[in-house]
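Lecture notes, unit on protein representations.

Consider one protein chain, 165 amino acids long.
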Amino acid sequence: MKNIFLLFLAVAIFASCSEGITKNYTIDNIDVTVEGPLFDGPNTMQATHSIDLSTIEAGLLPEHIQSVKLTKASVTTADSAAFNGVRNFVLQFTSADAKMQKAGVLNPVPQNTSPVELTPAAEAELTDNFKQKELIIILDADLEGDRDESLTYTGNFEFEITYKK
């Protein structure tokens, strides 16, 4: 009887320590925009994305999420001048009840190139942001010079989500 109890206890401990399930979540072709006039220096573009955890797995709830990391981020433009006139990009995420997290950067931005790939910040933990209904995407573009027109870029973001049901 004692052996059965110890076996049960060992199985229970092993099950509680098991790793979670890891899957990718993508946000494709989302426009981030800022209205002009724009000035030399950082200008903030943003967009809102509704988080749908059921696209990862049916029945997945926010409390099941253990970890969220940005693994890939790219920004593109339809402008023929590409990103000429942009010094650098800083990508951040926030939501209603979670703090803002710096998640990626590109410095300097290559000229005459589109799309560009941002470098994800390894230390950015976006779990709290993904436990909300909406995710706010913030892209700061450090511009060279003033301009009157608005800016719209398109972002593609891939996240690695680890969860346990």
